[in-house]
Amino acid sequence: MRLQKYLALCGVASRRHAEEMIAQGMVQVNGQTIREMGVQVEDGDIVCVHGERVQPETEKRYVLYHKPMGEVTTVSDPKGRDTVMDHFRDYPVRLYPIGRLDYDSEGLLLLTNDGDLAARLTHPSHEVDKTYLARVTGQLSEEEIHRLRAGVVLDDGFRTSPAKVNVIRVETFASAVLITIHEGHNRQVRRMMEAVGHKVLLLRRVKFGPIDLRGLARGEWRDLTDAEVRALKAL
Fold this sequence. Notes:
alpha+beta
């Protein structure tokens, strides 16, 4: 099978991320560093990532984690910051995050060793809804809400798809807004709010597809139920 698929079956990464790892020279097959796409892995080949052998895992696991602010959504961090994976060092299988949450954002994060499912859930063509609770400066006007719902142009020229936007609380100097998007552009919700003149003070992801965050405090995690896993696979 292709090396990218092999890495996904090992739970190392999604196929798309596996391609990035290969291009960066992080993967070795039978002691040889591989940088080209399309390499085939045969029975008996020894595949290593960062010098550590990886093999396909037969047991698939799925975890819901309430990420607090101040953690990066990576396996390791060159700056030595806390990562979400610090909580899963002793977990029975190696987990990897599905998508990312910014260092200064919190909320729902899914982790798994099912590389194929992770790839499907993060691929733009599947348009999986993610819902965020954002506390923003000031009060959104009807025109600003309409612009967000229609799609706005970010600072790099990217035009977002229409979003679902509902203001749930208005304060003197701030507002609480529920916003649902299906894209994963870098820091997208923050930049969408900036595009209409508001700064995000707090950002929490509260729902990913059919999975919501209810019942989990910051820093807590649990395994997904069989029903939740089926619901994700049905997307």
